[in-house]
Amino acid sequence: MTDPLPVCIIGAGLSGMTSAKHLLDRGISFDWFEIGSSYGGNWRYNNDNGRSAAYASLYIDTSKGRFAFSDLPMPKAWPNYPHHTQVLEYLSKYMQAFDLASHVSYRHEVTLVEPTGDGWMVTVRNLVDDTVAANLYRAVIVANGHHWAPNLPQTDGPFAGKILHAQEYRSPEPFIGQDVVVVGAGNTGVDIASELSWHAKSVTVATRSGAHVLPRYVFGRPLDSFTTRSMAKLPLSVQRGTFGSLLFLARGRQPSYGFPEPDGPLLAQHPTVSQDFLRLVKDGQIEVRRNISRTTATDIVFADGTTQPCDVIIYATGYRISFPFLDGDVLGVENNEVALYKRIVPPDVDGIYFVGLIQPVGALPPLAEQQARWVAQLIDGQELPTSAVMKAEIQRDQAELAAQYDDRPRHTIQVDYWRYLDGMHRLCDANDASDGASGIR
Ligand SMILES: Cc1cc2nc3c(=O)[nH]c(=O)nc-3n(C[C@H](O)[C@H](O)[C@H](O)COP(=O)(O)OP(=O)(O)OC[C@H]3O[C@@H](n4cnc5c(N)ncnc54)[C@H](O)[C@@H]3O)c2cc1C
Ligand SMILES: NC(=O)c1ccc[n+]([C@@H]2O[C@H](COP(=O)([O-])OP(=O)(O)OC[C@H]3O[C@@H](n4cnc5c(N)ncnc54)[C@H](OP(=O)(O)O)[C@@H]3O)[C@@H](O)[C@H]2O)c1
Predict the structure, then answer these.
(1) Ligand 2 atom 48: residue of nearest CA
(2) Chain-centroid distance, C-alpha 430
(3) Which residues in 194-280 belong to E strands, given as ranges?
């Protein structure tokens, strides 16, 4: 009997890393390609893949207990919210612990992934010698990340200053003494505005829908220690009420700081977490306006009619989901919407799996880990339901998402940490029990 074809993994960020680990656990052979010259993806500062959005002062906003993979805790001595250099150090330990390093082909970009009927033809460019090769694989795991293709809105007007997307932001030095407008009040926007408020001449945040800004710590404990598994089982209205009361005690009403309440209720947006931002607004270090309406050469005119001199606009407006190597027939992406069973499998296409294509309220790694575990089970022979069953579940997931979240491109892949994690665990445990591989995690 001939050996089965290998599997192809695209990307050596944390999602690709845990995918490789689970294929190794099952003795499944694979080729693994990465554009950059090392692993870590977003967590490698100044990554030579040209895609990392990490800035020098970045600390994770999900506590270390929630962030770590199940089989490698973060060190006890580390802070609750580690710095990005510690996250990379942690990922290095993961690479070593599971002996992954020798399996990656660095400086190799996957440029085309096509179904052939017998498997998948994957074209790869060697970025060192500029050669191209195509090989056949039985399955493809796409772990290319979803925070790398900037969503850069048009600037309406003859603005003569500098315009950049937050992905390019590294540190405050280039902005010392400048008038800066930051567009967006997600985690990137509030982090950058808070940092710049100590260095720039002025900082204004332009936000079209506002945000509920949550503190990192409540009563001295990391915020996510209050979002427990049992809380996730309560009806959304009860979660909103409980969480709202906690926030009221911890920080009072948000408008009292001069930052508007968003249009939607709590938990209708991906959370914006900052211990500093509201105080900086209250103390006048950061101005807040509604969205940019237009610009002149030197000024920004906001939607409320006010005007502000501006040297630099930083668009902290998030990212587009993108698979430049895939035909839209394999997976269409419209307004960031993707239709995937369990957020992993396209229901009408065999042998391609998406790992890490979710945005949890809570951290990604443990969820990507269970996704990778399930994908390894599928590649190893576990069956999927019929396409009709998968599509029905996708519809239910999308309806649930629409019932909770504001209708925005940034909310199309939201999942609840505990519900998603526990659901994937149950699925994987049942599969392991059925194929007698219960030791494999
Ligand atoms: C500023 C910022 C802060 C964040 N903070 C947190 C946090 O606190 N907690 C949290 O859980 N999440 C956070 N996230 C989300 C973050 O995206 C994930 O933590 C994590 O980086 C996702 O890992 P990944 O492997 O899926 O993607 P990435 O880290 O983006 O890695 C993808 C890899 O695939 C490679 N690749 C892409 N295309 C190809 C190709 N065609 N061929 C070969 N290789 C390819 C890339 O070079 C890259 O190395 C943050 C995101 C940003 C932008
Ligand atoms: N410290 C940390 O750990 C940290 C730091 C940074 C980022 N992150 C993570 O990285 C991911 C990306 O975060 P992000 O803040 O870069 O992006 P994001 O969460 O998508 O937020 C984008 C912001 O830009 C606004 N926006 C989008 N398009 C706009 C437009 N055309 N005009 C005006 N405003 C627009 C959005 O407002 P609407 O709501 O109106 O669309 C939102 O306020 C998230 O998962 C986040 O948690 C984590």
Answers:
(1) 187
(2) 28
(3) 202-206, 213-214, 217-218, 221-222, 272-273
